[in-house]
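Help wanted!
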Amino acid sequence: MSALVRLTDVARTFDVSAPWLDRALGGKARALLRAVDGVSFEIPRGETLGLVGESGCGKSTVARLIVGLHAPSRGTIEYDGVALAGPGADSVPAGRRRQARRSMQMIFQDPYASLNPRWRVSDIVAEPILAQDARPPGAAIGERVRGLLAQVGLAAADGAKYPHQFSGGQRQRISIARALATEPAFIVCDEPTSALDVSVQAQVLNLMRDLQRRLGLTYLFISHNLAVVHHVADRVGVMYLGRIVEIAPTPSLFAAPAHPYTRMLLDAVPDLRMTGTARTAVTGEVPNPLDPPSGCSFHPRCPFADARCRSEIPMLRDASTGGKVACHAVDEGRLAPRTPAVR
Amino acid sequence: MTASAPLLAVDRLRIEFPTRRGTLVAVHDVSFEIARGEVLGVVGESGAGKSITGAAIIGLIDPPGRIAGGEIRLEGRRIDALPPAEMRRVRGREIGAVFQDPLTSLNPLYTIGRQLVETIRTHLSTGEAEARARAIALLEEVGIPAASRRIDQYPHQFSGGMRQRVVLALALCAQPKLIVADEPTTALDVSIQAQIIQLLKRLCRDHGTAVMLVTHDMGVIAETADRVAVMYAGRIVEIGPAADLIHRPRHPYSIGLMGSIPSIGGSVERLVQIDGAMPRLDAVPSGCAFHPRCPRAIERCRRELPELRPAGATRAACWLAGSPVEQAA
Ligand SMILES: Nc1ncnc2c1ncn2[C@@H]1O[C@H](COP(=O)(O)OP(=O)(O)O)[C@@H](O)[C@H]1O
Ligand SMILES: Nc1ncnc2c1ncn2[C@@H]1O[C@H](COP(=O)(O)OP(=O)(O)O)[C@@H](O)[C@H]1O
Ligand code: SF4
Ligand code: SF4
Ligand SMILES: [Mg+2]
Ligand SMILES: [Mg+2]
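Answered by r_m:
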């Protein structure tokens, strides 16, 4: 099983200090925000890794780091064996890196903002093809655009229309057609269905699954919706304040969550099949990322926290569930994974 | 008012938006009731008419939108044609409102204490000190830590989840009989959403408050609602007890809607897909508005509009929902 994408100890810090003069006058210190703090994972070819967590935990920053919209402050990002960022990246020929980048594409949450409103759909879909080094002849481009539109369930005639003439779900189809234009192997999907109604979400999720089967695509699928991630992902990573706290094969993560935060998130999801069921109360809020708690950043909300948790950051270690967990209590054997029977 | 009158009765409500190119009908002949202390969930895709129905009940339809027909009665008394001053009194005193964005309900320039005390004093005859004590008690009840200190802070000093708690306190402070909550948790993270839903349920149970809960999240409905109304293209297409509607929906649109929702409780290879999209108000199909997307449509559906009628444990507006064929399936 070869990993197509590999992140090793990737971090990204943002300088969110007040302007220099304000700091000087107000006596304020520089403020650094660790949006992503030591994230490691692999995505095997043809699989989907789901990334979940509450807003601000660093999901989009991970996505932007992978596709090269941000540079990491630390760590290595490899794609298909090529180091794209971090130590070793400089020795990779620029052409090789560019080729790797072209083999990945990104789909965003907001299909309204990510499509140029003044362009016809056919031009939007053709743009990535035209941006390639080896640009095919005009007739071949038209043919390819029609093929791409058909692949996402749009009619050839739709190419002549503008984005505003489409519904939200159809616009997301246009984004997908554009993403497929360069025949990528890997697509980063950042909350691709979060702005859509459920029935339209189902259309888009089904389409994405069909395309994955047909084209052998690999996905990083980011969502705050656990049920959606449960449906699409082979493995799931759970993020909290810039770190992955648990990563495991989808069935075991949902049936036997190990990390206290994963348990809390699962308890928080209202689910259709749970009419009237009482579950553990969820408490607390995500802390200010500029002033994260010491040790395990989940400790102020964690029912299992002890002195070690307040001082020492837990590392991601192999767990009995077949995944990895960053929790002292799990590590010390104080906390067994929740058994499937409980849920 | 008679003892048997429901708390809220909406009868053949019709809401129109006059435009340059003709009149758009956003809500058609919508009728439903809410009993005292009952939670009615209202679901449907965006544009179905959920919010505008809620806005009609609290008397806050944005002009040029207007109620063009039907009646809304609270404890038997018509409230759809009250003069603005009187409607303002009903809103707040008898009907509370909670919206998706807590900032629409809070004035950024006033401390939350001032807003709570003013609302309490407007609707209940209490003195300043008593109102403030009541405000602090309410903030404690909705789970604001250190309420007696935080009451003097401004809305921007609270997180999104804490602000929505403050809005709940504000909606409840005059002890209304009904709360209209429009997507109250949609903008919140799951763990905060769960806390707000629990809080809403507990408060309404403790105070005997009824709720019209508008949301597109069926999970929230499953956990909260006693009954559910499903809206499509400005009409209620199915209404009934929550468990029946979720587990045994009868209208083809409800069936598709439930099947399209991914669930952690089960695994499916493909989600049920309703092809197409909800029609725009200026292009609502003839007959049953769902017919172009309906897998079961028959000729009659294109011509005649089905009314709500009993189907299993719910009522559905579908020519086939009550038929023996459907029951056998
Ligand atoms: N360009 C940026 N400058 C400063 N802070 C940022 C920037 N991008 C993201 N952040 C901060 O980094 C954290 C993680 O953000 P993000 O990756 O968008 O989270 P998510 O997608 O999980 O909601 C947040 O606290 C956010 O405010
Ligand atoms: N101010 C307005 N002018 C014209 N149409 C409107 C206006 N407000 C709402 N509508 C229309 O009324 C319909 C119902 O809207 P709404 O009640 O907000 O739907 P929902 O809450 O179910 O998403 C929509 O088709 C919407 O476009
Ligand atoms: S390390 Fe400690 S505080 Fe963190 S999740 Fe585990 S038990 Fe809780
Ligand atoms: S009335 Fe006809 S078109 Fe409408 S939902 Fe029923 S079967 Fe489908
Ligand atoms: Mg994001
Ligand atoms: Mg709405």
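OP: Thanks! One thing I noticed: Chain A has a mean pLDDT of 90.
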